[in-house]
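Hey,

The postdoc asked me to send both predictions to you directly instead of through the lab channel. I've kept everything plain text so nothing gets mangled by the mail client. Protein one:
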Amino acid sequence: MIAELGHYALVLALALSLVQSTVPLLGVRRGDARLMALAGSTSTVIFALVLVSFGALTTLYLQSDFSVVNVFENSHSAKPLIYKISGVWGNHEGSMLLWILILVLFSALVALFGANLPATLRATVLAVQGWIIATFLLFILATSNPFARLDPAPFEGRDLNPLLQDPGLAAHPPLLYLGYVGFSIAFSFAIAALILGRIDAAWARWVRPWVLTAWIFLTLGISMGSYWAYYELGWGGWWFWDPVENASFMPWLAGTALLHSAIVMEKREALKVWTLLLAILTFALSLLGTFLVRSGVLTSVHAFATDPARGVFILAIMVAFVGGALALYAWRAPSLKQGGIFAPISREGTLVLNNLFLSTMCAAVLVGTLYPLALEAVTDEKISVGPPFFNATFAPLAIPLFVLIPFGPMLAWKRGDLNGAAQRLLAAAAIAAVGGAMAASLVQKGPWLAPVGLALGLWLIVGAFSEIASRAKVLQEPLSVAWARAKGLPRSAWGTAFAHAGVGVLVLGVVGETAWKTEFIGVMGPGDRIEISDHAVTLTDIRAERGPNFQDQVVTFSVVRPNGARLPVSASKRFYPARQMPTTEAGMIERLSGDLYVTLGEPQDDGKIVVRVFYKPQVNLIWIGSLIMALGGVLSLSDRRLRVGAPRSAKAHRATGHVAPAE
């Protein structure tokens, strides 16, 4: 009965989404406020229905109801509770239901917080969201029904993929989908602007919080996925330029460009046409990621589905939405009025350069990701495009971008003073130069470019807060006055500083891990001892254990750190009988200065085992930097000027049918 309730709720949601996608547009055409208002109430009801459906599927997992195909194929009665819950979205059907739940959640949020939007814009945005919702509900009902039944019901389930039986599954997909799907709102705003034929600074003001929200969640999702792969897969890496990793990175790059472009549009009413295009392309890249994961064209630990029919359906969705959006863009964009003019040396100019670098980086990742697939489809020839290609194309674009970033906030709008900005950044440049020189003199091994990378990281961190120091008049006013001025700065200024500094911290982590890591591979038995980066590692014990749904071979080590502290660390090899699948669980001692990382290979006939030990300096700065970036986004989002429900002027309240002017 629960399964049928969940299925029926999806059918009702599909019917209402067809209403949401058509009736409000009819109201816009006729100027009928009642028909336009229907969009908001319909969005709320659709969210409630999809929430009921998702709750039904979760209940089936908690009850281990193996009469449902999805539960049978991805659960087990002995599986721990946390993995029964997270296992709901650890498969294609359940993850698509989560995708749709987040999609309708954003639609309901627009209905809830968009009360101050002009009625025509609000109705059109929600109607476009209705098109997306209806299409994906049709997809899940036609090709990916999570409530399909088995008769007779099996006694036991097949268990969840062991690689997914990890707390990372509870956080990574929801965060990633909140980012992916959140960009659908920017897409809907762009299409609504093209339909209505008007876009101005107020439009950018309304769309920026949604873009920023999606960007924050996508940043956290990518960071969580990287950390999960780092400690779970047992290969010691944090990024491999895997095509599915790239599929999440591309919309992040495009979304970052969109966020900066929207700032220019809000402040100067410039880059209107470019901002609209970025909004369309960012969501297009989110759909591309969905296609790559679910079409079967890729074989990856990230991939959920291998059914070509599903891939064709998603490809049709991409063609319909992206092709239709670009056709509408080609038709309407030339008629949109352009905004203000600015000098090349200005804050707008640096943001345009920022967009140029980010877009080119995104294009390079796109080519490297899709070229092997296109070549195989045309010639049946299989090639691999891996880290060497991406490192060679990405780094030359990233380095000048990192040099540019601190200059942007230092320059004035419309026309800036480059010499003045450079003078205010002298301290940052000096600290970066000294840091790079010290690294070059103290660390004799590693790539010669590593000190340059370290200097870039310091330049980004100190440069980010130099703008705060300049505005607070640090060293020019008494400390109490400077602190009061700093506290009085808008949260968006602090958010920008933290986001840019987070990039610098991430760069420091990447440089330390890639340039100065050390590695040992060998066979060890009880009592054997090795030394790596001033750490003494002794294998103390090999034993067998049994978990709730797996068998475990646990190897324990005693580690003596450079300061003399002795710490235990354990790594293991697990075997899941239901899936007949082994996994490797890495052991780690995590410190801000670096990680000692131990993973196991194959056991030997003499009772010993292959051991791989890494020491990874500064690796945790990669994820700390990502968190600081997300914190910067949260600070900016909390700024009153970016609140979705910020009041409009009386003139805007009297306006009908058009986006309100910026206040």
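Protein two:
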Amino acid sequence: MADRTKKADLKPKQSPVQFMDTTLRDGHQSLLATRLKLEDMLPIAEKIDQAGYAFIEMWGGATFDSAIRYLKEDPWERIRALKRVMPNTPFQMLLRGQNLIGYRHYADDVVERFIDRAIINGINVIRIFDALNDLRNLKTSFRATMKYGGKVQGAICYTVSRFHNNDLFVEQGKRLEDMGSDSICVKDMAGLLSPYDAFDLISKLKAEISVPIHLHTHDTSAMAVATYVKAIEAGVDVIDTAISSMASGTSQPPVETLARVLEGGPRDPKFDMDLLTEIADYFIEVRKKYSEFESDYTGVDPRVLTYQIPGGMTSNLAQQLSEQKALHRMRDVLDEVPRVREDFGFPPLVTPASQIVGTQATLNVLTGERYKVITTETSNYLKGLYGKPSGPINEEIQKKAIGDGVPVTVRPADLLEPEMEKAKKDLEKELGKEVENIEDVLIYALFPKVALDFFKYKDKPVAEKNLDSASAAEPAGPLIAPSEFNVKIHGENFDVKVGGVGHPGEGGRPYFIYINGQLEEVMVESLMEVMPSAEGRIESHAGGRSIRPKVAHDGDVTSPMPGAVVSLKVKEGEAVKAGAVVLVIEAMKMQSEVHTAIDGVVIAIHVSEGDRVNPDEVLVEVRPTS
């Protein structure tokens, strides 16, 4: 039990405020959809290490997923590479408790091995939170962090609802300290904490808790600087900021501004302002390279106090809607988020809860009917597989999602069997070889489908890797002369450009094609070998992009939104009942089960696992048996 002999009227500390830099993690996650590459971090990393920060947040959150999904970078190598040039400042990462850096709960053995590898590679402090503030979901990650020599920073997810108040957060802070936290973070992921509420909350925490208090917020509502000033007056020990050229809006407030505010006072951090200016100038130029990931929804917006979406999710949601040509529905989605959040028991909107709520809100808007499509993650959430929210869940929606299923009341991870051994065997089967690298096994255990695509890329020759980057401008050294043309499919025009071709291998020859500026890889056995199907579909023999029929019958199954096929659940000739799951689609990092509307027989399947699909395409055809 922690020693809480401190007096409530004790004067706040007058030691300098410590700063953590978030530029290499939350800064670009909030502004640039987590697309900042390692190659753009390394040239300035040494300067950041010399700047005088107490901690540098450079890993965790969405960076792991984004590295393998979009950037085709090894996330483990990011820690090692940065540590080599930043040996002086402790590294901090953000961990989602039992969710680690994913979107579901993982078994305890995965959690333990992940934390072990993170600390071995160079992570010093792990900020650990649970999206529902369900402290049962933090026990394994706390224990593993302490076991392997890391520092535990227990986090309180700050939110606003009729079920949340500062006294509740103080009680959570006391429990986190009792669990072994070396420090406590108030994690205000959406920028909701007002200045005077911050003064009240930090004052109460300092009176009750003996370990350092760390405050994290976002500047979406433009009151973060004032919030930090009042928190500093109350005695907060550490605050999160980003360099000015990667700050403000949905990011953290700028370090330079707070340093100037404190200059000359008892809590002056005494930064080298010339060095900070040099770092800021560097990121002014770097940020230009990522302009395609900028949006109108990463700046100041006081309406965040209503819809409460965190900074990192705002930029990613805007990017994902843009990719689906639905960015004009962003405001509709933001308006729907609070309604879904209330249905779900007012969870704090932080990953994965923010992804679950945000994706469900998006589906409600884009399908034109609330809960017409319910994602797998929504069903799992409403079943209790993420934990217990502070407020009551809408029973009608819960019934629609889980039917006659009984909600879970135990710690969700207690229901999971160990996963590491099975993940290793499955990966070896997929790759056709032994896998000794535990870090690769962890990547696969966390994101199986994305991992397989990443490993294919990881094993390519360097020359071919240069053709396939997350936001490549032009392929380096194409092996054939580029050609361009336009094709019209289902009334939509696509600009197509052949960027280059790789060397032939098993499965055919890879071609690197830009479709509306986005790089795709297509495996082709023969340039001229295309096969028309019985239903008028045309596809490459090796399974490239296809032209699928439009809806013509009641039994035609389509996707509710653009995405990728994760798995097929039926075969041609199979009898199915109305409501049966025929395939699973991944969209916006969430999975959705797609059902058949009628009793019948599957007569045709027009997709394979991994295919990209659109709402106007027939994916599976089911015909009545009578």
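Summary for protein two, as requested: The first strand starts at residue 18 and ends at 21.

Thanks,
C.
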